[in-house]
Amino acid sequence: MTLRRARGFTLLELLVVVSIMALATAGVGLALRDGSQQSLEREGERLAALLESARAQSRASGVLVRWRAVEGGFRFDGLRAGTLPTQWLDNSTRVRGPGSLVLGPEPLIGPQQVILVQPQHPEHALRVATDGLRPFTTGPAP
């Protein structure tokens, strides 16, 4: 008479399955990240780069450059038209509060900031700011 041994899963097999499930759950969580927050962060990073570019052009040319938010986008007064983009990537992006910054030509421009929001998600706001010496950076709005 032959005895059959009951077989189950080994501890190693169970750990592999749990690990795969954890990775899949993390992947789904990242994929479902709030798109509006990502969009706002993308707008903020792009604006910070554009402001730094305009600031460098202002210093190089010695011409006063101002950034202003306008309906549907923004303007760089003092730069030749077409030098830098003037539209948001997402048409719903808005500026909360004062929408004007002075970018030079002086090396020190003073602390300045602009707050970006999207009306469909007012709880998300992003601050693009400089202390006047360092480059513009993004962060959560106060």
UniProtKB/TrEMBL annotation:
- List the PROSITE patterns hit by this protein, alphabetically: PROKAR_NTER_METHYL (PS00409)
User: Where are the bilayer-spanning segments?
Assistant: 12-32
What domain of life?
Bacteria
What keywords does the record list, in alphabetical order?
Answer: Membrane, Transmembrane, Transmembrane helix
- Record's protein name: General secretion pathway protein H
Organism equals Simplicispira metamorpha
